[in-house]
Amino acid sequence: MALGSIASKLAREIGSVVKKAVSSNRGWYSPHMAAASCAIAQRLPLVDLIVEIRDARIPLSSEYELLRIVPPPCPPSKRIVVMNKMDLTNPTQIKEWMRYFEQQKCISYGVNSHNKDSVKGLLNFIQAQARELNKADHRFSDAITVMLVGIPNVGKSALANSLHQIGRISAAEKGKLKHALVSPQPGETKDISSLKIGSHPNIYLLDTPGILPPTIHDAERCSKLALTGAIRDSLIGLKDLAQYFLAILNLSDQYEKWAKLSTNWGKVSILEHKEEHSSSSKLEMRQKRQYLTDHTQDFMVHDVRRALFDAISSFDGNLECEDDMVKLIEAQFVALREAFHVQEEIDQNVQDKVAVKLLNLCRTGRLGHYTLDPVPATH
Ligand SMILES: Nc1nc2c(ncn2[C@@H]2O[C@H](COP(=O)(O)OP(=O)(O)O)[C@@H](O)[C@H]2O)c(=O)[nH]1
Ligand SMILES: [Mg+2]
Hints:
Layout: H1 5-26, H2 31-43, E1 49-55, H3 66-69, E2 79-84, H4 91-103, E3 108-110, H5 116-136, E4 143-150, H6 156-166, H7 171-176, E5 193-198, E6 202-207, H8 219-228, H9 238-251, H10 265-276, H11 282-294, H12 296-313, H13 322-339, H14 350-363
Parallel strand pairs: 1-2, 1-4, 2-3, 4-6
Antiparallel strand pairs: 5-6
Helix pairs in contact: 1-8, 1-9, 5-6, 9-14, 10-11, 12-13
The structure holds guanosine-5'-diphosphate and magnesium ion.
Guanosine-5'-diphosphate is lined by residues 84-85, 87-88, 112-114, 150, 152-158, 182-184, 188-189, 210, 365.
Protein name: DAR GTPase 2, mitochondrial isoform X1
Organism: Herrania umbratica
Keywords: GTP-binding, Nucleotide-binding
């Protein structure tokens, strides 16, 4: 996705804030990350397969640079690039990315760690790849080690747990093994841990702490990492980050499908669900209707979408003009305060509260699906 000059400008400004925080020693590269990166680098040459997890919303910005730095260079047949969080990305753009990886002779795969069938597909793919490697090396080993690597918060631990649950190992074995810690905060996995994900041959998966390079020179990349949650929010102004997201949203076509929300919510949202899941059975539809009426969260998402849509559609400025975009974003913040029920007289830091709530919806895909990195041109 070409972000548009204004979104890019905002991204660079926020990125500069992040870079400043890093250079003033409040960065992400903790002693813990440095130690983990040494431990990973030592083990990398010993594993059979490296599965590099990237965030499908930023297939390039979420690259794991350690693989490029650590000698000896990892042979392409030993590395699979897995784009996780496919449910949050733009389906058309991610297809272009997969084609790009294919052209680059890079083995890639797209997955949603929260979806059983999707993880099952990846497990089969890893097993086939491991068998191929065994054949090529003329090895007949009964144990294969796969290392999951990636920057923070791309879903390594979530994927490790899902692979472990689905892996064809006995229930008794499953009970004995621990689960990796999954968290929406980056940097929660502190040690390398092993989970078994298959038998005959035995496949062991090493979940590792997320590693970022000590410095990132590209300010726009810093912002994309911040927006997708790879960098702690405390390094960035929350309002700036929310503004950046609003600029992306306003320049995209994602909000257009919320036009129909302006009428009766209950009726329309059920219709919307019907369209999205036309194959659902009547029972499933009934359950969904129940779900919709039960969950105040859905009403809030509806109000937020409508507030954003109404602000854009009633705006008569030029979104390519920076001043106009800023005016629209300010108007959206005011409308969002109401949609999120943030009360000015009670809440001190109104703007940050609105920003946190907005970022939460953005990061869980409830305000559209985005691929923020454009596919590099190939010649
Ligand atoms: N929507 C979505 N969220 C995911 C997916 N995989 C992981 N997550 C979420 O991303 C966050 C980070 O996951 P975690 O496994 O702790 O990331 P790690 O730091 O790479 O180990 C958690 O809130 C997960 O629930 C996915 O495929 N789709
Ligand atoms: Mg983890």
